[in-house]
């Protein structure tokens, strides 16, 4: 199913690409409203049932970009790229599982990505040694991605903020280890603002401290009066739509506008239909960015 008539799709994509070139010129987005994207994990049940129809519905909301995830990689990369473009969307970024990073680089290139992102580490690696080991692998993948004209980034949850005690050394966190042991020219950060806040930290403060590393943002809000966590389990799931929770979005989006960071709405669980949740977050983001 194509959201746009085939005769108009090419013209639309050409104009969209031209707009992207204009709006991504550094130092940031300027006065234009940056593209608002959606991580398709939010719609994981829908895309498995009807990928073209779901993408058309996403585009109808007003969203222009999507971030892909492994459940739809049963499609060959050229085919998936075509399906996304047929819906009038672009796909600048996608998530790839940690244990499949090396084998995914060529797929990412064929998909036409600017960024390939590792969404999380296996739980067995949530330790000082594990984070350092992951950092070494990220450097290697980052170099491969760079050689193919892409960038590599990691995505955070709350477990990266659990204090780690080290004998004879100051306490640290997984995030600190990842940032310290990765090459800033090869490995970037997709900051998930919810999970930073859920760990008891300030997403704005971390964004300010790491403006050059944070090239992508995940946007969902956090309910009020809920406990912090480091477990990424059911006891940390206090999601709500952007603009309906406790995160102060205007200053975060101001920096994103200045740096040109990509914006993706992503909500792990929704109280109602995910497409309706996506639309609420999109409308509120448009208001903040206007």
TrEMBL record:
One of its GO terms (molecular function) is isomerase activity. The keyword Acetylation does not apply. InterPro entries: IolE/XylAMocC-like, Xyl_isomerase-like_sf, Xyl_isomerase-like_TIM-brl. Keywords: Isomerase. Residues 55-266 form the Xylose isomerase-like TIM barrel domain. It comes from the Bacteria. Gene3D superfamilies: Divalent-metal-dependent TIM barrel enzymes (3.20.20.150). PANTHER family: HYDROXYPYRUVATE ISOMERASE, INOSOSE DEHYDRATASE. This is Sugar phosphate isomerase/epimerase. It comes from Granulicella mallensis.
């Amino acid at each position: 199913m194509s959201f746009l008539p085939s005769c108009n799709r090419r013209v639309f994509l050409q104009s969209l690409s031209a707009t992207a070139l204009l709006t991504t010129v550094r130092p940031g987005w300027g006065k234009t409203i940056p593209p608002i994207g959606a991580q398709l994990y939010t719609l994981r049940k829908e895309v498995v049932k009807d990928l073209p129809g779901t993408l058309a519905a996403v585009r109808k909301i007003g969203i222009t970009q999507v971030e892909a995830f492994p459940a739809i990689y049963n499609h060959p990369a050229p085919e998936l790229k075509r399906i996304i473009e047929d819906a009038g969307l672009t796909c600048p970024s996608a998530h790839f599982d940690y244990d499949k990073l090396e084998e995914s680089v060529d797929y990412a290139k064929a998909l036409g990505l600017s960024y390939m992102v590792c969404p999380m580490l296996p739980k067995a690696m949530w330790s000082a040694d594990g984070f350092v080991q992951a950092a070494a692998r990220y450097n290697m993948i980052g170099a491969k991605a760079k050689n193919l004209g892409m960038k590599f980034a990691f995505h955070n949850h709350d477990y990266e903020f659990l204090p780690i005690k080290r004998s004879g050394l100051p306490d640290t966190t997984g995030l600190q280890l990842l940032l310290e042991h990765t090459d800033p020219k090869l490995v970037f950060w997709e900051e998930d603002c919810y999970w930073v806040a859920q760990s008891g930290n300030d997403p704005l403060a971390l964004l300010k401290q790491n403006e050059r590393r944070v090239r992508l943002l995940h946007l969902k809000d956090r309910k009020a009066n809920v406990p912090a966590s480091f477990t990424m389990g059911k006891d940390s799931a206090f999601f709500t739509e952007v603009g309906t929770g406790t995160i102060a979005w205007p200053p975060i989006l101001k920096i994103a506008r200045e740096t040109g960071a990509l914006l993706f709405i992503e909500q792990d669980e929704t109280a109602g239909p995910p497409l309706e949740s996506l639309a609420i977050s999109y409308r509120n983001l448009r208001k903040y960015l206007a």
